[in-house]
Amino acid sequence: MRPIHLVPAAVVLLALGAIAGAAQLARPAPPGSSPAGPPARQVAVTSATRACPPVPGGGTGKVAFIAGPAPAPSSGPVSGQAELTPLPLAGASLRGAGPITQTEPGALSLLTVPAAHSASQRGTQALQGWSVTATGTLAQAMEAEEATSSGLASVRCGEPGSDLWFVGPGSTNGAGQIQLDLMNVDALAASVDVSIITDAGPVQAGDEEGITVPPHQTVTESISAAAAGASVVAIEVRTSIGRVAADVSESSSSGGTASWLPSAAAPSTRLVVPGVPPSSSPAGLFIVVPGGSNATVSVLALTSQGPYRPFGTQTIDLPPDSASYVALTALGGGASALELTADVPVTAAVLVPGSGLGAFTAATAPISEQAVVAGNTSGSGPGATIVLSAPAAAARARLTEITASGAGPAGPGAAGSQVVSVAAAHTLTVQAAAPRSAKPGAAFAIVITPLAGSGPLYAARVETQGQNTVVSIIPAVSALTTISLPPVRDSYEAILP
């Protein structure tokens, strides 16, 4: 039986006292006065945290890591610290591993994370996640991804949160093994409830409620049994206490390379799924309707030739509390993005056939300030492309490629850049390669920066091998250097959760 978590009465009284005090201090605005207060204040990011999942099967791994923006000649001294700290499997007796420190700002680093070994059984490897933290100026635009030995990103190290979504195939679509990794980067234990929706509706999985994730530790849960007989599985990870980072990996019953499901945007009536590359066989669209109402969904593909409706004038009608699979016909000879519009909140992901189960992309938010895809390789192996989509107004962005330390004669973090334009309701594919000064086959990072006046921009990095076999897709997520602090006036919102 899982432990029951109780909130101490003192905490409740303290919160009520704080609210009462705020009520006495706050005074209503005089009649007729403008509700507008001072503008929001922009402050620099001084702390950032990510969590990388355990390497499938244990063993050593790589983390592609950038801490802080590239230093400008007029910038001040770099402050703070960036490091990787192990998050051992809960309840496992492991040999201690020290943190891995990285302090060079604005340059890509490929950091080797050692395998976790049992302290009681000599030579036995165990699973272990990693916390990635940065403070001071090194926290600005920080990004980390778990990568292969060559530096190719396989999954983004995610931010901890209280409500996370993942969508992918179930067992009848080839996913014989589904693993959920929960990582707690904080000093407070987290309590997690996992909700599962399949094409047959919600799954009653009592063992997935009240999961305790101890501080600075990792908990893994198998979702395979809950998804048995399902063609689609949607997983919601919600915390009632604390917060966690989460990742979901899927593999076939016979094993082989695991495929990672990127975290999907929270359910909304409008979604954009970026980075859908062309493939030799049709891709699959997964849509989740988590609420109690029927959903009517329309799908618009943003291609290099402009908008295109893959289902014509037809809409997709879906029942409540359901997860559905819809086959996508060919969307043209190039990459595209999918824009979904629904009358009730939904979330979505796309599976593109490729190595293993295939590669996944999911609904995400537009890029704010910049996005960083840290792990890329080029040369005679995989080829990297950046897929940029502008669903509304035209967009302009700068793409900057940054090498790893020691990867070229121009010094650490040598960079090249280009400015590209994306027409409204179009998708643009840009070949990405390491700067000319980099060594052949060197790993490099890509920074995507929307320029002033640009419309909303969505992006993803696609890696292909050989005859356009898709190896991985990394949806681009904002890596902020500043955050906006809105003014608070006569409101309880500053003290209420």
Commentary on this structure:
- The protein is built from one helix and 37 strands.
- It is mainly β and 497 residues long.
- Among the domains are: 59-156; 159-262, Hypothetical Protein Tm1070, Chain: A, CATH 2.60.290; 267-363, Hypothetical Protein Tm1070, Chain: A (Sandwich).
- The strands form nine sheets. Strands 21, 22, 23, 24, 25, 26, 27 and 28 form an eight-stranded antiparallel sheet that branches. Strands 12, 14, 15, 16 and 18 form a five-stranded antiparallel sheet that branches. Strands 2-9-4-5 form a four-stranded antiparallel sheet, with no helix packed on it.
- A hairpin with a 2-residue loop joins strand 19 and strand 20.
- It starts with 8 loop residues before the first helix and ends in a 12-residue tail after the last strand.
- The model is unreliable at 1-34 (pLDDT under 50).
Brief digest:
By secondary structure, this protein is mainly beta. The chain contains 1 helix and 37 strands.
Task: Write a concise keyword list for the protein shown above.
Hypothetical Protein Tm1070, Chain: A, eight-stranded antiparallel β-sheet, mainly beta, disordered N terminus
